[in-house]
């Protein structure tokens, strides 16, 4: 009988966590969703790749829900805060096809224009001792998007699996599970093969996701982007400004540094 894997699991969020928010992936997504009144200046060079010329103004919320740009933005933010994922609100209240949304938004993002390998991220993941901890991706995105991001960052090889929001579940008449619901963390634990919350470690840039994990008993690090003010109430036990701080708060997961040789 094979010996059960006893390693703890370090869960990594993907978007705005493995890469910095300065990559502007969220802005690209908002432009496709249609939650900004006009394209941001930095998006103008990418518009031909984002949307076909004859449908540039056919933003998702505006087209499918007949909303003004301002109302689209308000509804997007409401669903994000309420459900942790805009698509959850869209499918619940507007019978939007989740996979069609994914095709028109996440899959349409020109990620290859904004994402590339990050040496500091690669070095960090290389320095983690996989004998001591299992690395696992945990995202609210659909699997297509998650795979594209880690492929472009060239870090697929470091992770042993991915827990994602199954957009297809909605089309099957099932409930889609996403952070920060307790069911999402339980699903991640099951898929990563970890039984005890004490063996779950997590890093995410989302306050509500970190708070949800913390409430469940996970050891959690809330990643704050540089320059962003600290929340009045911490989301979790740890608060960090860069992934490199994981070396300090979770030193047990890193390979010992090679001692300097004299002479």
Distance between the termini: 50 Å
Question: What structural class do helix, strand and pairing data support?
Answer: alpha/beta
Extended strand count: 6
H-E order: EHHHHHHHEHEHHEHEEH
Number of discrete helical segments: 12
What oligomeric assembly is this protein in?
Answer: single chain
C-alpha-based Rg, rounded: 19 Å
Biggest sheet architecture: 6 strands, parallel
Strand content: 5-15%
Dominant shape: globular
Strand order of the largest sheet: 3-2-1-4-5-6
Share in helix? 25-40%
Plain-language structure description:
This protein is of the alpha/beta class and 263 residues long. The protein has twelve helices and six strands. The chain has a six-stranded parallel beta sheet with strand order 3-2-1-4-5-6, covered by helices on one side. α8 links the parallel β2 (134-138) and β3 (162-163). α4 crosses α5 (86-94). Residues 35-58 have low confidence and may be disordered.
List the helices and strands and how they pair.
Layout: E1 9-12, H1 25-33, H2 47-50, H3 60-65, H4 69-83, H5 86-94, H6 98-104, H7 119-126, E2 134-138, H8 143-153, E3 162-163, H9 167-171, H10 182-192, E4 200-204, H11 207-216, E5 219-223, E6 238-240, H12 246-249
Parallel strand pairs: 1-2, 1-4, 2-3, 4-5, 5-6
Helix pairs in contact: 4-5
């Amino acid at each position: 009988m094979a010996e059960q894997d006893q390693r703890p699991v370090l869960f990594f969020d993907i978007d705005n966590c493995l890469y910095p928010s300065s990559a502007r992936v969220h802005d690209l997504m908002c432009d496709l969703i249609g939650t900004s009144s006009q394209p941001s200046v930095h998006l103008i060079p990418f518009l031909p790749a984002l949307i076909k010329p004859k449908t540039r103004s056919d933003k998702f919320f505006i087209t499918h829900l007949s909303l003004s740009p301002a109302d689209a933005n308000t509804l997007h933010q409401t669903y994000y805060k309420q459900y942790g994922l805009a698509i959850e609100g869209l499918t619940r209240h507007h019978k939007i096809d989740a996979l069609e949304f994914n095709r028109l938004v996440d899959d349409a993002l020109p990620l290859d224009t904004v994402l590339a390998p990050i040496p500091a991220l690669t070095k960090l993941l290389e320095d983690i001792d996989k004998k001591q901890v299992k690395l696992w991706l945990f995202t609210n995105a659909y699997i297509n998007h998650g795979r594209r991001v880690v492929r472009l960052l060239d870090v697929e090889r470091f992770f042993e699996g991915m827990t994602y929001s199954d957009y297809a579940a909605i089309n099957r008449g099932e409930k889609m599970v996403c952070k920060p619901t307790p069911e999402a963390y339980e699903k991640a634990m099951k898929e990563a093969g970890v039984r005890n919350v004490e063996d779950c470690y997590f890093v995410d840039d989302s306050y509500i996701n970190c708070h949800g994990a913390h409430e469940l008993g996970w050891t959690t690090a809330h990643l704050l982007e540089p320059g962003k003010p600290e929340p009045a109430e911490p989301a979790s036990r740890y608060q960090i400004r860069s992934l490199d701080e994981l070396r300090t708060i979770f030193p047990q997961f890193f390979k010992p540094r090679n001692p300097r040789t004299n002479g």
